[in-house]
């Protein structure tokens, strides 16, 4: 039933103006649509997410958006150059080196946006 429907992530922002600046200045994204409810972003790969203002932003402790790239180190270097800090983990089942974890054939790195939302950046083997 839902396989023909478009799906999109929904991200909260405590400060929509600040979030918009982060997505523009740090991630290089501009909204494809804008209305009183929030901002819709779309990638050229066909995915997207909706960003809206709420006091609940930053409360989730799980990955909320996952990005896939063909060159993880290159993307990380560019994002680091724009001020992104990648998380480091060292506990059973998850250890990062230089911000990258090896997970079942995928290499993944995590960062947070200006609103505390957790993003993953991964490269499939």
TrEMBL record:
Q: Which organism is it from?
A: Leifsonia kafniensis
Query: What residues does the VOC domain cover?
Result: 1-124
* InterPro entries assigned to the protein according to its UniProt record, in alphabetical order: Glyas_Bleomycin-R_OHBP_Dase, Glyas_Fos-R_dOase_dom, VOC_core
- Supply the Gene3D superfamilies for this chain: 2,3-Dihydroxybiphenyl 1,2-Dioxygenase, domain 1
Quote the Pfam families the UniProt record gives: Glyoxalase (PF00903)
State the name under which the record lists this protein. VOC family protein
The domain of life is Bacteria
């Amino acid at each position: 039933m839902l396989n023909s429907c478009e799906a999109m992530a929904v991200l909260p922002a405590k400060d929509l103006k600040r979030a918009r600046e982060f997505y523009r200045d740090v991630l290089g994204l501009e909204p494809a649509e804008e209305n009183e409810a929030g901002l819709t972003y779309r990638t050229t790969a066909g995915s997207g997410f909706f960003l809206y203002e709420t006091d609940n932003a930053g409360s989730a402790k799980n990955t909320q958006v996952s990005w896939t790239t063909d060159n993880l180190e290159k993307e990380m270097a560019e994002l680091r150059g724009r001020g992104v800090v990648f998380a480091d983990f060292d506990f059973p089942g998850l250890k990062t080196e230089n911000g990258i974890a090896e997970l079942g054939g995928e290499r993944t790195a995590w960062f947070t946006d200006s609103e505390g939302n957790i993003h993953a950046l991964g490269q499939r083997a």
